[in-house]
Design goal:
Length: 411
């Protein structure tokens, strides 16, 4: 499938955008422009099985892949507050591409999380100037990838069930454990590295175009200098190293809410133009049907509340980013509780909206040509990433006992 080109005739070979945004509001507007392009044939592309190379090209052309990159290297120089809004806007049109963008931005930030200051500078310059698109092979539910130390190089061996971004990525973040130790090592390698094999086996009901299939890692080599956060083969830990979970969980929150908003707005358009009032009602127009009015009012209020919580938590997280080298365990733990609350609420609201819209659409809207089911399939698929009950538990234990969650792969 191809992304429908909405540009005027004769402009197909020209760049869609000539200048880059400079403010947060302009970047969010740019994301909505991207979303409008993706929305045109979103239903058809959801049914396709091709890797989303054109969608990634669109993200690169728009500048969204380097929104967090330093401005001096051509990046957007924006904060995570803006990035989350951008993810939400893109996901409203296409949940798969919203997820790809969100995961990419986390891995783009990986050097900041665990790298040395020298590595951070080098990686962010290279990633921004070359518009790298990141994938990651870091599924913690699988066995650890084993790393062997071969002097100046380290060698990764193993496999991962999921590797979001795989075939459409330029670089891939690998993670494994040094043989005979409990030392975890992250490194960024080219996605076309010898021994790195992405398998075309992602066949799930939702988020169909996220390139999240399995990967085999067979003697993938990289220099010790690529080992994030290591100097002379020794790692110097800091609390900020553990912020990858709050960041990615808030990525989840925002593309869930983006999908929910896309579902609600698309459904409202259909209701305005197509839905009919029930034959036993006392009105002639669906827009005057009291049950439909109540439905949209209820779902919209819930969405607004969840979005407001997500935005507030993003503001709190930004303060941690600004104090990355001094953040305390207590500050990190309190923030994780807030992220957990936002994740629990976003999950429940997104599932309710993406299934509930059908009450305001009518039976004819279940025709596969409309593709309304894609919103629910996308949310239902990804919200199983980690059980939402455990997020509520983090919040509940903190409220009752003051306990703060300890950093794990999921908290």
């Amino acid at each position: 499938m191809t992304i429908t080109d909405t540009r005027p005739a004769g402009a197909a070979t020209e760049a869609r955008w000539i200048t880059a945004p400079t403010t947060s509001a302009e970047w969010i507007d740019r994301a909505h422009e991207v979303a409008a392009i993706l929305a045109v044939d979103a239903v058809a592309r959801d049914r396709a099985t091709e890797a989303p190379h054109e969608e990634v090209t669109l993200l690169k052309e728009s500048g969204l892949v380097t929104i967090l990159g330093p401005a001096e290297f051509g990046g957007g120089g924006q904060t995570w507050e803006t990035a989350y809004q951008v993810i939400r806007a893109v996901a409203a049109a296409d949940g798969s591409i919203g997820q790809l963008l969100g995961y990419h931005l986390l891995w783009f930030w990986a050097a900041r999380l665990v790298g040395t200051k020298e590595q951070i500078a080098a990686v962010e310059q290279a990633a921004t100037e070359n518009t790298w698109f990141f994938g990651g092979a870091v599924n913690p539910r699988d066995n650890d990838v084993e790393i062997t130390d071969e002097g100046d190089t380290i060698v990764y061996n193993g496999a991962k069930t999921f590797s979001t971004g795989s075939r459409v990525s330029d670089v891939t973040v690998l993670e494994g454990v040094l043989a005979g130790t409990d030392t975890h090592v992250f490194a960024i390698v080219p996605s076309n590295s010898e021994g790195l094999t992405f398998h075309d086996d992602w066949d799930n009901i939702g988020q169909r175009r996220t390139e999240s299939g399995s990967v085999t890692i067979d003697h993938v080599r990289t220099d010790w200098s690529s080992a994030a956060g290591f100097a002379n083969k020794a790692f110097e830990p800091r609390v900020y190293n553990t912020l990858n979970v709050p960041i990615i969980q808030l990525v989840f929150v925002n593309f869930y809410l983006g999908i929910a908003r896309g579902a609600l707005e698309t459904a409202a358009d259909y209701t305005r133009t197509t839905t009919r009032a029930w034959l036993h009602s006392t009105v002639d127009n669906a827009l005057d049907e009291p049950y439909i009015i109540d439905l949209y009012g209820d779902l919209t209020a819930k969405l607004w509340a969840a979005e407001a919580l997500a935005d507030a938590v993003a503001v709190e997280q930004q303060r941690i980013h600004e104090n990355a080298w001094t953040v305390t365990e207590h500050e990190r733990g309190e923030h994780e509780v807030r992220v957990a609350a936002a994740k629990a609420r976003a999950t429940e609201v997104a599932l309710e909206i993406t299934s509930g819209i059908f009450e305001g659409l009518g039976a004819r809207a279940t025709a596969s040509s409309h593709g309304f089911d894609r919103f629910w399939r996308n949310v239902r698929t990804h919200t199983l990433h980690d059980p939402v009950a455990y997020k509520r538990r983090e919040v509940g234990r903190h409220v009752l006992t003051g306990e703060l969650p300890q950093p794990t792969w999921y908290s």
